[in-house]
Amino acid sequence: MGEKLPFRARNPDNTKQLILDAAKIEFAKAGLGGARVDKIAETSGANKGMIYHYFGGKEELFAAVVEDAYLGIRSQERLLGLLDLKPSEAIKKLVEFTWEYYLENPEFITLVNSENLHEARHIAGSKQLRKLQKEYVDTVREILERGAASGEFRKDIDAAQLCITIAAIGFYYLNNRHTGGVLFGFNFASREALAARIKFNIETIMRMVMN
């Protein structure tokens, strides 16, 4: 009892996901430069040889983690059923989802920041991410077009710009909560402040799109 399964009996997909999950924590905490493969191996229960076998090295593992982080938010967005909702309800739900995702997955913000420091070179070659991003923007464009056709939305809204704004309006607030708290003089992460912020985010985006 308690013995680890021999390597041949391991589920490769499960092992890879365990490594990705452990690596996500380590990279979010220490960044690419400070992250240690030894720590990732210890946390995941895999050995370093398995990590190198599946991912090739620390740089490649970091690339896989960042890609997996983006896949996470895009895949959950697809489950929202936005195209089945009234346009105004769909946009509101998207704003709420994006905010809640950031709150529930703080490592996403940290990983995106880290990848920006590396000028996005780890995801630059990911066709899968570009495909998912295009699908996301196309979904928002369809919602906007339906809203414009019904007279609910303005007709001049750029879907890509709206997607960027929905992401930024929550991302900036949470990413700068410490400096913002000092400069603005209140706790950005308090329950009251978070509730006020999502209310403001929804109102801001809806005013942008409504006719």
Automatic annotation (TrEMBL):
Alphabetic keyword roster: DNA-binding
Domain of life: Bacteria
InterPro entries attached to this UniProt entry: Homeodomain-like_sf, HTH-type_TetR-like_transc_reg, HTH_TetR, NicS_C, Tet_transcr_reg_TetR-rel_C_sf
Signal peptide, first to last residue: none
Domain HTH tetR-type residue range list: 13-73
PROSITE patterns given in the database record: HTH_TETR_2 (PS50977)
Name of one Pfam family that matches: TetR_N
Residue ranges of the annotated DNA-binding region, renumbered to this chain: 36-55
Record bears the keyword Oxidoreductase: no
Protein name: TetR/AcrR family transcriptional regulator
Lineage: Bacteria, Pseudomonadati, Pseudomonadota, Betaproteobacteria, Burkholderiales
